[in-house]
Amino acid sequence: MNMIQSRNAAFSPKNRVAAFMLALAVLGVSAPAQAEEGAQKEESRAQQLMGDVTPKLADLTDDVLYGDVWERGELSKRDRSLVTVSVLIAINRPEQLRSHLGLALKNGVTKEELAETITHSAFYTGWPNAVNAALIAKEVFKEH
Q1: Mean pLDDT by 10-residue block, N- to C-terminus, for the chain (144 residues)?
Q2: C-alpha of 54 from chain center
Q3: Are 133 and 92 in contact (CB under 8 A)?
């Protein structure tokens, strides 16, 4: 594959969608809150964080990221949490990591498994990223 073919493949519609979905994932917003039957729908975390500035992005986060991607059966929510935590460590996104460490605990990932994920990631993502992740995990673990 030559350089032009490689560049075109990188910007294919499929790859653009994948990159967009990853970008939504790194926002680190919590899953949308479920409204009680007959009650007014509670505003989701995405709506709270960015709905007034980027309403479409908040809607996509609720409907596509959490309403579709996180609900796909090919990976459990537990496994999706491990993948997401790993990616957030790698790209050094502390605020999103904080949110997703809490979500990972809710999705059944243990503190010990998260600690091992951070340790393991140090060798692939860089020592500073892992140290930052450990400090954030320490705070999150105290809260849970």
Answers
A1: 47 47 49 45 89 96 95 97 98 96 97 98 97 98 95
A2: 18
A3: no
**CB of 129 closer than 8 Å to CB of 89:** yes
Closest CA to 127 of 82, 92, 87: 92
Q: Do 46 and 32 touch, CB atoms closer than 8 A?
A: yes
- Name the residue among 84, 94, 78, 75 with its Cα closest to residue 21: 84
- The answer to whether 136 touches 121, Cβ cutoff 8 Å, is no
Q: Which of 144, 92, 85 is nearest to 117 (CA)?
A: 85
Task: Tell me if 35 sits within 8 A of 43, measured CB to CB.
Answer: no
